[in-house]
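Example 3.2
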Amino acid sequence: MSSRYTLQQSDDNELLLKFQNGNRDALGLLFKKYLHQAYGVALKYLKDPEDSKDAVMHVFEKLQNDLLKHNVRNFKSWLHTVVRNHCLMELRRRKGLHFRPLDENDSPVSVEFQIPGHPANEFSKENLLSHMENGIKELKEEHRKCLELFYLSEKSYQEVSEITGYTLLQVKSYIQNGKRNLKIYLEKIHAG
């Protein structure tokens, strides 16, 4: 084992210890240090830059709790595994549900859902819009608020952060989680 590797691991362990003792900035330093690596792993599995960015944001948000529960000895290796597992779960979750990409003439509510073997392969626009409105009402408050500001009011991540008081990382996470939960809600309605 090289001394450089040992030094890097020692630095990571010091930052982890600081974080576990209440220094939230230490996690930010680890985040910065391994952001590029985490993004590369996510991109390898998800093959989409935006999905990969979202995956990295989810993982790093989740780390705030996970690092307080687990005794991590090699952060770099552990992070690689966590990102890989997150991406594999995301791919597994997506399996069987295909979206037709939107083009500039489509409205967001004309997305076609195609679930193999299901007799109805498309929601009508009115039906989908009605289900989306109901689904949005079912979301957690922070998810609903961020989705509405971002998509309906067309605010930027930064503007949503300023309006809500949530951090930029929280805003991105709440939007991603809200989209995922809304999609799950619509899948259940469509399957039922």
